[in-house]
TrEMBL record:
Protein name as it appears in the record: Polyphosphate kinase
Residues annotated to bind Mg(2+): 380, 410
Presence of keyword Protein transport: no
Protein family: Belongs to the polyphosphate kinase 1 (PPK1) family.
Protein purpose: Catalyzes the reversible transfer of the terminal phosphate of ATP to form a long-chain polyphosphate (polyP).
Organism of this sequence: Zunongwangia profunda (strain DSM 18752 / CCTCC AB 206139 / SM-A87)
Lineage of source species: Bacteria, Pseudomonadati, Bacteroidota, Flavobacteriia, Flavobacteriales
SUPFAM superfamilies: Phospholipase D/nuclease, PHP14-like, PPK N-terminal domain-like
Length: 693
């Protein structure tokens, strides 16, 4: 494992004063909002089940990344930890306490709400204790034909010195016997067999794969008397620590290090709470874990598998209603995107509109003989998408293609690098990550020869070039031929290609070069206007708010009388509504059908409003350690459209939660004469009317 820890970075991450929340603790309140969606009967049954799966998946990643980082902090020299006020053990205990409460709530939702409602809709998940003779015969055959060949059956003799290795995030059965010096371990092969098995006989009846394996365990250990069966799952460290001085192509280093995803340091053992303490102790010693690494759970783990649960009734009332993509009033019928974009900037919104507009733009560029260059940054590459196919076709047609592949996009490193190699093999200029810098921007530039001049067309988005995530992530994207923006985009790509050191931008905000400085100037401008009695307001929407310098500026603005209205989907280190500090700051968070992912920044500027959107949150990494692009909005129609969307979200009183000092996640309630506003649905209706063609 390559271990790298920058103490100056740690210092930035640690809340040293009462005016900052700890990001890792506040993140848990974001995940609680996901859990609230599983409880909310406004959501159809199968959508609530999906929210349980998302909650579980989020928590797994949290332990693999954030909690693993806390464990790495324990390796920092004690004197340095003391100087930086690092207290990883105390923080971990706080995290585990909150997670335990949330998991108890999770279990109650599943057993007291979801299972009874499934049964009420004639959908039954049967456990092995209640298999009928017919069901048992079916599962016996299914086990023999499909499951048994994928099992790894281990027996551990505790009287001898033994180690046990468990694969990351895989579920196993731990089996106890009359002989207390022995333990059995059997994997549950979900990857090969799926998590749910539907019975051939018995309408709408299914079971867990776990239950099929459980029912066969006596046959797997025929000479032993089984006394207990407990499901367990181990989460391992998912971070890749790359040393600054590591030489060579960073992509190669990461590719070689991906095995750490499966054999990294353990960060959490989730076990059936019914497991006796004596058995817990044996297991803990066998896996070389501390007490703090042990987390009691329910009978089943890996609820993220519920994302694959199918509705055997095909009842539309158990799912969200259809939201057909809205046709863009200009791009939908345009046969020449270059002409349409040159005449006027064009804005698209996902998932309300189709990602095909991006794919068509690139497809037209590939087929256009006047297009000479295509340059694009890829953060999360989709498998075999029209976009990647178009890039390969462009290479076949002899066009110059430059692809910047982010080799450090967490959990997508391997896929990104595989695609990078494919592009290289076809002749593309492929550039991989730089040490300590991620390219997180979502940008594309097409160069087209028009007469005697080369004209650049740019795409700037808040979301990845991924058609799958575009169906569930709320994002915005701008197509523009505005020379003020495209000229600076061209210089940014020259920076990425190593031809320039800095992009020298005046319009775009580009991290790590100018974004922090520009936002600082904009906030100070609002402070000065407030002090002079002018109109002063800051409205911003983002995924997360963590940067202490920006937060301190917002506190200063609040004290000066600037009205600050924030939409923060995820965690925030800012504490709003505190007298004498942040009483003019009000924050809400919207968690609903789609994942809010856009970033929009609006400054009052004494009535002459300034708006920006792009890929950067107000986080230290987005401002200082990533290549990010945030664009000003110069087109007046687009400005008003984005502002309308922002206003709709600010007025949400159905799915918005208040982020207050007490971290209560209370829902915003409509006033006495106020109509209900579920913003994602209202935005869909707004865009449908706005783009009615």
């Amino acid at each position: 494992m390559y271990f790298w820890l920058n103490t100056s970075e740690l210092e930035m991450q640690q809340p040293t004063e009462d005016r900052f929340r700890h990001r890792d603790l506040n993140w848990l309140y974001f995940n609680e909002r996901v859990l609230q969606e599983a409880e909310d009967k406004l959501n159809p049954l199968f959508e609530r089940i999906k929210f349980l799966a998302i909650f579980s998946s989020n928590l797994d990643e949290y332990f693999r990344v954030r909690v693993s980082q806390l464990r790495q902090m324990k390796r920092v020299e004690k004197s340095i930890r003391k100087k930086l006020a690092l207290k990883p053990n105390r923080l971990t205990k706080q995290i585990l306490k909150e997670v335990k409460e949330q998991q108890d709530r999770f279990g109650a939702i599943y057993t007291m709400q979801i299972l009874p409602e499934l049964a009420a809709n004639n959908i039954h998940i049967v456990d092995s204790e209640h298999f009928t003779k017919e069901q048992q015969d079916f599962t016996n055959t299914y086990f023999t034909d499909h499951v048994k060949k994928h099992l790894e059956i281990k027996k551990v003799d505790l009287s001898k010195e033994n180690d046990l290795f468990l694969d990351n995030a895989m579920i196993y059965f731990l089996i106890t016997f009359d002989n207390e010096n022995e333990l059995g371990v059997v994997n549950i092969p979900v990857d090969q067999c799926g998590r749910f098995v539907y019975f051939e006989h018995g309408k709408n009846m299914l079971t867990y794969l776990d239950e099929i394996v459980r029912s066969e365990l006596p046959c797997l250990f025929p000479k032993d008397n089984i006394t207990g069966i407990y499901e367990i799952k181990l989460s391992r460290d998912a971070e890749l620590y790359i040393e600054d001085q590591y030489e060579g192509v960073l992509a190669e280093k990461i590719y070689e290090s991906l095995k750490q995803r499966t054999d990294g340091q353990p960060t959490r053992l989730l076990y059936d709470a019914a497991m006796p303490k004596a058995v817990q102790k044996k297991l803990r010693h066998l896996l070389h874990l501390g007490k703090i690494d042990m987390m009691p759970g329910g009978k089943y783990h890996n609820f993220k598998d519920f994302l694959s649960l199918k509705d055997p009734t095909n009842n539309p009332e158990l799912h969200f209603g259809e939201h057909p993509p809205i046709a863009h009033k200009i791009l939908e019928n345009s046969t020449d995107y270059f002409k349409s974009i040159k005449e006027k900037d064009q804005l698209v919104h996902f998932p309300y509109m189709s990602f095909q507009y991006v794919e068509r733009f690139l497809d037209q560029a590939v087929k256009d003989d006047h297009v000479t260059h295509i340059k694009i940054s890829l953060y999360r590459v989709a498998d075999n998408s029209p976009l990647t196919s178009s890039l390969l076709e462009a290479l076949e047609k002899g066009k110059e293609v430059t692809v910047f592949v982010e080799a450090k996009a967490r959990f997508d490193e391997e896929n990104n690098i595989i695609w990078g190699r494919k592009f290289e093999e076809k002749g593309a200029n492929v550039i991989y990550s730089f040490p300590k810098i991620k390219v997180h921007s979502k940008i594309m530039m097409i160069s087209r020869q028009e007469g005697k001049e080369s004209v650049n067309y740019s795409y700037i988005g808040t979301g990845n070039f991924n058609s799958d995530t575009s169906k569930i992530y709320c994002d915005h994207a701008l197509f523009t031929a505005n020379p003020k923006l495209t000229k600076e985009m061209a210089r940014l790509f020259m920076v990425l290609e190593g031809e320039l050191i800095v992009p020298r931008e005046k319009h775009l905000l580009i991290s790590p070069f100018s974004t922090r400085q520009k936002f600082t100037t904009l906030i100070y401008n609002e402070i000065e206007n407030a002090r002079m009695g002018k109109k002063a307001k800051i409205t911003a929407k983002m995924n997360s708010l963590e940067d202490y310098e920006i937060i301190d500026l917002l506190y200063k603005a609040s004290k000066a009388g600037v009205e600050i209205r924030l939409l923060v989907r995820g965690f925030t280190c800012l504490i709003p509504g505190v007298e004498g500090l942040s009483e003019n700051i009000y924050i809400t968070s919207v968690v609903d059908r789609y994942l809010e992912h856009g970033r929009i920044y609006l400054f009052e500027n004494d009535g002459d409003e300034l708006m920006f959107f792009g890929s950067a949150d107000w986080m230290n990494r987005n401002l200082d350690r990533r290549i990010e692009v945030v664009t000003p909005i110069y087109d007046r129609d687009i400005f008003e459209e984005l502002k309308d969307i922002l206003t709709i979200q600010l007025s949400d009183n159905v799915k918005a939660r208040i982020q207050d000092a007490g971290e209560t996640n209370q829902y915003v309630k409509p006033g006495k004469d106020e109509h209900k506003n579920r913003s994602q649905y209202a935005i869909y209706d707004y865009l449908k009317q706005k783009h009615n063609i």
